[in-house]
Amino acid sequence: MSAGAMTGAGVVLKALVDQGVEVIFGYPGGAVLPLYDALYQQNALRHVLVRQEGGAVHAAEGYARSTGKTGVVLVTSGPGATNAVTGLTDALMDSIPLVCLTGQVPTHLIGNDAFQEADTVGITRPCTKHNYLVKDPNDLARVMHEAFYVARTGRPGPVVVDLPKDILQGPALYLGPDRVQHRSYKPKMKAERAELERAIELMAAAKRPIVYAGGGVINSGPAAAQLLAQLVRLTGFPCTNTLMGLGAFPGTDRQFLGMLGMHGTYEANLAMHECDVMLAIGARFDDRVTGKLAEFSPDAKKIQIDIDPSSINKNVRVDLGIVGDVAHVLEDLIKLWKAKQRRPDQKALDAWWKRIEDWRKRDCLKYAQGKDIIKPQYAIERLYELTKGREPYITTEVGQHQMWAAQFFKFERPHHWMTSGGLGTMGYGLPAAMGVQVAHPDALVIDVAGEASILMNIQEMSTVQQYRLPVKIFIINNQYMGMVRQWQELLHGGRYAESYMDSLPDFVKLAEAFGAVGLRAEKPAEVDALIKEMIATKRAVIADVRVDPAENCFPMIPAGRAHHEMILGPEDKAGKPATEEGMVLV
Amino acid sequence: MPERSERHTMAVLVDNEPGVLARVIGLFSGRGYNIESLTVAEVETAENRSRITIVTSGTPMVIEQIKNQLGRLVPVHQVHDLTAEGSYIERDLALIKVVNAGEKRVEALRIADIFRARAVDSTTKSFVFEMTGSREKIDAFIGLMRELGQIEVVRSGVVAIARGVATI
Predict the structure, then answer these.
(1) How is residue B153 annotated by DSSP?
(2) What is the ipTM of this complex?
(3) What is the tens place of the pLDDT at every residue in A235-251?
């Protein structure tokens, strides 16, 4: 190679630096050795070595979601790439911007069933926003920059760049990011004037309005959440958030009704059911949100703002679909609302709020904490109360603890809540918390976990130890896959097939084995002390909180039921048996 | 009340790059949409563009989804629902081999003449006819040939273009 010429690996790293990347989560292997060799010889990029590639992708997701930047993953060919598939699917479902670099066997061996060869672009095609296989070194720089552009713009998502070893090893030409333009991919950002006018007419005429805001608000950037708050206060409308949208609107605000959906609040779900105008912002009418589609919000005129046209009219037919970026659309909407001097129908709105307050009085999240057994809700509520002054970053695994965390934590700002919403990936929380902690070294980062989920990526404790990441793992230990157990109780006659977590490790000793601190609470009176000690500990902590194994997560809309058919608690479930139709739903 | 299924023909302009057809087909299979016919070929060499014609069916909501989901694929430049956008011309090309003898051969030629099908290969025991036309016309021709001997059919699938001055 001539002096001054770059290798493909050099081009990849330079592109990462020019894209503003600071951290890569990865795991080396044969096909990516040239990249690791180049990484070894530079200081601009930091590499965090995970213990399994799946952990790298979730860590990058946590990093991306807590910063608003694009997360970067580096894995080898074959099993490295296939281990990344779950995380990529997770990022696709939750619209998280990632660039995942995968090694590939040299171009002349592709298709020969070579060692550690897998058809990575074939396997990841349906679980990425886009993917590339670079077969020509002249394409390398362009593809790298394009990958970042595609990942972070429009509706964000994961992009895979598959890099054959000979491309990394051989010479390649570098081009800067400003030299790259995409020919076909151009997301629409702004709404049409006529659409905005129609939206304002509908909003001004509303008697029972609701704002239903989702993760799209957070993805749109910091301005979007501020504009959302501005619009909600300007109009006096009530606001609910999806699981993905928590933090998009301040959680303690009086106008906030809490999360909606299957385990959402009574007031949020009834307001969705009874409303006459619904303003959906960056939310996609997921089945966990809508319940039974045929009876979903029957009287509402629905307005939907989304940057992805395919999110509009997918599950629910809306009366006005507005394609555009949330921040751009809200800014124009607020301007027009003010310019036209619109006022909401205050009399109707007062009556609507009165009804909402009545629903609120049902206090749907109440639970009975006795003296002997810790209720999981109590543990999580105390965790919230004792940490809220520190603006903690919360990640979760998947299951009951996730829903309780969503119910009891009140997020004032976006980017502080990281949970696997769309895919529901158990094992997400610990690696995600690592990624968050890497991005925010001094912040309090807590993985609210279950004892089943945490074991799915427990190997990452070793990563936590290596990088001295002081993450706090707060295990709601009910000795069951709690949500599976709950469905078996409510829908399958209490036949608890394979949902009991036998042979659990001693989590305190497990923590110690990984150089972390292990804590345990078994009585309600011990919970506060455990949480305080956990926060005060400068190192990583695994807190094993032994809770009531029989507790169920309420309120709940049973599968196949509509919003107004919520079960509020155990005493409420008898009258509403599951339907045949509901039984087949997940 | 369930909405009625409609048949739509779509024209999709894409970058001619590896994997683009797999993306389109994967989208249809992954989301459970129908493909009645799909054709693809490069149409603009300088621009490196291919045009895909897809005939699909679904409820109006599904058709809208298909259009938006196709539009979301990164290498897709334009998606046109020709059925929704106005009148258009659809053509299918078929090669039909008929193996027969005697009076049936004469009858086959006579019908081919009526349908403006061209004989492009002949032996003493067989013909291969080439014909272009609408799907219905080709279906009708194949139906008649089937009565006149043993047949083998290959069809290109539908290509379609809008009528009038507008271009994609």
Answers:
(1) E
(2) 0.91
(3) 999 999 999 999 999 99
Terminal CA-CA length for chain B? 36
| pTM reported for the whole predicted model | 0.95
Cβ neighbours of residue A526 under 8 Å, at least 6 residues apart?
none
Mean pLDDT of A154-161: 98
Quick check: is A483 catalytic? Answer: yes
Tell me how far apart the alpha carbons of residues A247 and A419 are, in angstroms, rounded to a whole number: 12
DSSP bridge pairs for B132: B93
Indicate the helix (H) or strand (E) that contains A199: helix A193-204
* CA–CA separation, A562 and B162 (whole Å): 44
Chain A neighbors of B22, CB-CB under 8 A: 122, 125
Chain A residues 149-208 within an 8 A CB cutoff of chain B: 150, 182-185
How far apart are alpha carbons A50 and A459 in whole angstroms? 9
Task: Compute the distance between CA of residue A70 and CA of residue A218 in angstroms, rounded to an integer.
Answer: 14
* 3 state DSSP class of B100: coil
Q: Are A447 and A392 in contact (CB under 8 A)?
A: no
How many contacts does A have with B, using Cβ atoms within 8 A? 41
**Cβ separation of B23 and A125 shorter than 8 Å?**
yes
Query: B-chain residues within 8 Å CB-CB of A130?
Result: 73-74
Once rounded to an integer, what is the mean pLDDT over residues A304-313? 97
Which 3 state secondary structure label does DSSP give A129? coil
What is the average pLDDT across A71-97?
Answer: 98
Please confirm, yes or no, whether A129 is among the known catalytic residues. Answer: no
Mean pLDDT, chain A, rounded, equals 96
**Which tens digit of pLDDT belongs to each residue from A542-579?**
999 999 999 999 999 988 899 999 999 887 765 556 67
Helix ranges (H only) for chain B are 20-30, 60-72, 82-85, 103-114, 135-146
Q: Is the N-terminal amide bond of A392 cis, ω within 30° of 0?
A: no
Any chain B CB within 8 A of the CB of A138? no
Is residue A116 part of the annotated active site? The answer reads yes
Catalytic residue among A144, A203, A483, A556: A483
CB contact under 8 A, B72 and A310: yes
Residues of chain B contacting residue A309, judged by C-beta atoms under 8 Å apart: 68, 71-72
Of B22, B61, B73, the CB nearest to A313: B61
